[in-house]
Write a structure and sequence with these properties.
The structure is a single chain. By secondary structure, this protein is an alpha/beta fold. The chain has a domain of 94 residues: Ribosomal protein L13 (Ribosomal Protein L13p, Chain: A). The strands form two sheets. A four-stranded parallel beta sheet has the order 5-2-1-6, covered by helices on one side. A two-stranded antiparallel sheet has the order 3-4. A hairpin with a 6-residue loop joins strand 3 and strand 4. The chain is globular.
Length: 142
């Protein structure tokens, strides 16, 4: 019996639609990351992009359990002296809910060129409207 390794050109990618309203952030992010990597696919190969395109809608309605809304902090640095910026999850969801979901998924992808390529297939939108109707994304139940 031979081991079949997926080739870059023979992978068929689908479009998947995920509704984030009422979903716990971590659980949703782990399932989205697995879908982006292609772990649902029988032809999954760790070093080849075999995943689907994922469209996440209603990002502002994502749920965090416990006291994470007030206690979870997001940090980034401007590059200047004293430029450390910190915001709570509640502030981030009010201003940029797309960033909260994309950062959660990014942390669950490989930290290399493949991970950066996979993250480009993730499309996150604040409300229910998205510009990918022409691709006919299939709804994914989480």
């Amino acid at each position: 019996m031979k081991t079949v390794s997926a080739k870059k050109g023979e992978v068929k990618r689908n479009w998947v639609l995920v509704d984030a309203s009422g979903q716990p952030l971590g659980r949703m992010a782990s399932r989205v990351a697995a879908r982006l990597r292609g772990k649902h696919n029988p032809l999954f190969t760790p070093h080849v992009d075999t995943g689907d395109f994922v469209v996440v809608i209603n990002a502002e309605k994502v749920k965090l359990t416990g006291k994470k809304m007030d206690k979870k902090l997001y940090h980034w640095h401007s590059g200047y002296i004293g430029g450390l910026k910190t915001r709570t999850a509640k502030q981030m969801i009010e201003d940029k809910p797309e960033l909260v979901i994309s950062r959660a998924v990014k942390g669950m992808l490989p930290k290399n060129r493949l991970g950066r390529k996979l993250l480009k297939k993730l499309k996150v939108y604040r409300g229910p409207a998205h510009p990918h109707e022409a691709q006919r994304p299939q709804a994914l139940e989480l």
